[in-house]
Amino acid sequence: xxxxxxxxxxxxxxxxxxxxxxxxxxxxxxxxxxxxxxxxxxxxxxxxxxxxxxxxxxxxxxxxxxxxxxxxxxxxxxxxxxxxxxxxxxxxxxxxxxxxxxxxxxxxxxxxxxxxxxxxxxxxxxxxxxxxxxxxxxxxxxxxxxxxxxxxxxxxxxxxxxxxxxxxxxxxxxxxxxxxxxxxxxxxxxxxxxxxxxxxxxxxxxxxxxxxxxxxxxxxxxxxxxxxxxxxxxxxxxxxxxxxxxxxxxxxxxxxxxxxxxxxxxxxxxxxxxxxxxxxxxxxxxxxxxxxxxxxxxxxxxxxxxxxxxxxxxxxx
Length: 317
Ligand SMILES: Cc1cc2nc3c(=O)[nH]c(=O)nc-3n(C[C@H](O)[C@H](O)[C@H](O)COP(=O)(O)OP(=O)(O)OC[C@H]3O[C@@H](n4cnc5c(N)ncnc54)[C@H](O)[C@@H]3O)c2cc1C
Fold this sequence. Notes:
28% of the residues lie in helices and 25% in strands. By secondary structure, the protein is of the alpha/beta class. The protein has 2 domains: 2-169, Rossmann fold (3-Layer(aba) Sandwich), CATH 3.40.50.620; 193-315, TPP-binding domain (Rossmann fold, 3-Layer(aba) Sandwich), CATH 3.40.50.1220. A 7-stranded parallel beta sheet has the order 7-11-6-1-4-5-12, sandwiched between helices. Strands 14-13-15-16-17 form a 5-stranded parallel beta sheet. The radius of gyration is 21 Å and the shape is elongated. The structure holds flavin-adenine dinucleotide. Residues 203-205, 229-232, 245-248, 260-262, 264, 266-267, 270, 280-283, 286, 299-301 line the site of flavin-adenine dinucleotide.
């Protein structure tokens, strides 16, 4: 059996949960077994995960707030209780915190941050993941009885293959929490960068924070999330949570538009897994053009407003 941990935020599932259940269902099919989903804490419409291929949903009551030790114990307990040998979770901030602990509890081999469905041969699983900041792939065979896989966001399309299923409460022994989350403040109204499918990003070529309107106007027209290069955040033109790259957020949106960013290797390390990269730079020799799917050599202060106007005109058709 494949067990998928489907995380809910404020009781609701996000795209990452649907992706991971889709992945679990396809993996289970390849293994000739079934996929069940696990939710922790209070979740609305948990049975809805059946639409993405879970044949049943289990819920374990945990006190509100995230504690990686408690979450890992809950998932490991469920895997043992249900005899699920393959455990799949999202490679988001929660997943990154849990994967190692979970694998240790199950004495499992783990493959964190995989990008594609596994190759199945008997009960052997081989998964592919990017390494060296997205410059190469590694194929990883998991040799252990229990296998833990975390899936990078935006790696596979969400697919609906069923309908809502039953939710059953599961009871497992949990350790007491070692930390207490006092408060979580979330940015309202925008998709956080790790989940964003469309990203518009600006660099030092913007010349100053007062010019950011060209970036936000384009982002608004597209319904995109905004990002920036590191020097821009370092001088407080933009908030640090927008900084993408090796030392910032690593993203893999469907579309990454970079304006006034040179394309230094440390920047590319966080964005080069984007499906389509569009670069706007006035320097035809800017290194970013080598990584771009589409490039516009031009002044961003002319190009971006025209692009924004064209998108608005197209949307009003
Ligand atoms: C250890 C380490 C870690 C790092 N981590 C990161 C990281 O995580 N993320 C990151 O981004 N950087 C990181 N850096 C910094 C990185 O090396 C680069 O210095 C940085 O990415 C450059 O930012 P930039 O492209 O905005 O600025 P610049 O390199 O100054 O490039 C500005 C670009 O704007 C173009 N431009 C100027 N005016 C216009 C205009 N009017 N229209 C169009 N184009 C224009 C220029 O041609 C130029 O290509 C790191 C560096 C180190 C040493």
